[in-house]
Amino acid sequence: MNCLKNLFSVVTALVLSLLFMNCNTTKQNQKMHSVDFDATCLGEYKYAGPDTLPNPRCTDTLTAWRAIVDCNGEGTPVGKFTVHFDFCGDTAGHYGNAIAVLVAENGDSLFMDVSGQVIEGRLEEHPDYVISWWRDEFTITGGTGVYEGATGVLASDDYNSSEDPYSHHRWTGKLSMRE
Fold first, then answer.
1. Are 42 and 60 members of one domain?
2. Within 13 Å, how many C-alpha atoms sit on residue 165's CB side?
3. Residues 48 and 104 in one domain
């Protein structure tokens, strides 16, 4: 009887291992395809100033300046989404060392690596109410759900306005994701 139990345990372990390997192989063999990414969102500054918040995270980076922004938006291929940014910066407008996560309405996430510089003023093509702007590339570094393993480079065309307290964002580019 012990021999039969051991044989059953070995066969069960073997079957489970084969199933697990098959699932991983299927995921690894899924082809990637490129899709256009085009999204807009409106950001609300939750905090902008010296990193004196509990659990400071900017003390060893650009400077001890920090901004936290939450955005709501919509776009292709993500549909309705939210974004949470928590980044470090300096008084010259450089920003980086960001925690940046886009969460689609279905709960799937895209992780982003963002850095660049906010420039005071406006460009000639901007509306009169633009008071600062940034056009930086950022990188998609992965995700969850349908965006697991996603990569891509997006270009921002963003600004702050004198008409409202929000940050205005438009992102375009290519997103590579599993079929």
1. yes
2. 7
3. yes
Q: Are residues 118 and 55 in the same domain?
A: yes
For residue 168, CA distances in Å to 57, 115, 124, 135 come to 25, 16, 17, 12
Within 8 A by CB and 6+ apart from 151, the residues are 139, 140, 141, 142, 175, 176
What confidence tens digit (pLDDT) does each residue in 49-106 have?
Answer: 898 888 888 876 556 789 999 999 999 999 999 999 999 988 888 899 889 999 999 9
What single-letter DSSP state applies at residue 176?
E
Looking up residue 51, the CATH number of its domain turns out to be 2.40.160
SS3 112: strand
pLDDT at 28 over 70: no
Binned at pLDDT 50, 70 and 90, residue 15 comes out as very low
Specify whether the CB–CB gap between 104 and 80 falls below 8 A: yes
170 and 108 housed in the same domain: yes
Structural domain span for residue 6: 1-30
Is the pTM higher than 0.90? The answer reads no
Query: How many domains, in total, are found in the chain?
Result: 2
